[in-house]
Specification:
Distance between the termini: 32 Å
Oligomer: single chain
Largest sheet: 5 strands, antiparallel
Helix content: under 10%
Order of helices and strands: EEEEEHEEEEEE
Radius of gyration: 17 Å
Number of helices: 1
Strand order of the largest sheet: 1-2-3-4-5
Strand content: 35-45%
């Protein structure tokens, strides 16, 4: 197995590619701690990317989909963009149809640059919120 790291499109983000001995590739980015691509070797053909992912850093940054990314602090919607905890009402970003909060709000974890380390042939992402 091999791991290669390169900067992505003149951005602060990295592309981290893990390749096994059969040519299978997992491509990760630390922008959103996302799976950018999974390239599978197909007999007699080019490798086939089998996941949805943007091809460009700016598309991840500006996109409205969370392709392969960590969403947070929560997944799904919070109705009416508010919740009550211990008698106090908290109001959140309205980023879903102008009335709900979806996947962490306007700048969820999918729009953050995560730290990463390679530890024993594993990629470990971290983000302090």
């Amino acid at each position: 197995m091999s791991i290669t790291i390169k900067k992505w499109n003149r951005s602060p983000a990295a592309l981290i590619t893990i390749t096994n001995h059969n040519g299978f590739e997992l491509v990760l980015t630390n922008f959103g701690a996302a799976i950018q691509a999974i390239n599978v070797p197909v007999d007699g053909h080019e490798k086939l990317d089998v996941v949805l992912g943007y091809n460009d850093y700016d598309d991840y940054r500006q996109g409205t989909s969370n392709h392969g990314a960590i969403v947070g602090r929560f997944a799904n919607r919070i109705g009416n963009a508010q919740f009550e905890l211990n008698g106090k009402t908290y109001t959140l970003d309205k980023n879903s149809r102008g009335k709900n909060t979806l996947h962490g709000g306007i700048r969820g974890y999918d729009k953050r640059l995560w730290e990463y380390k390679i530890i024993d042939e594993n990629v470990v992402f971290s983000f302090i919120s």
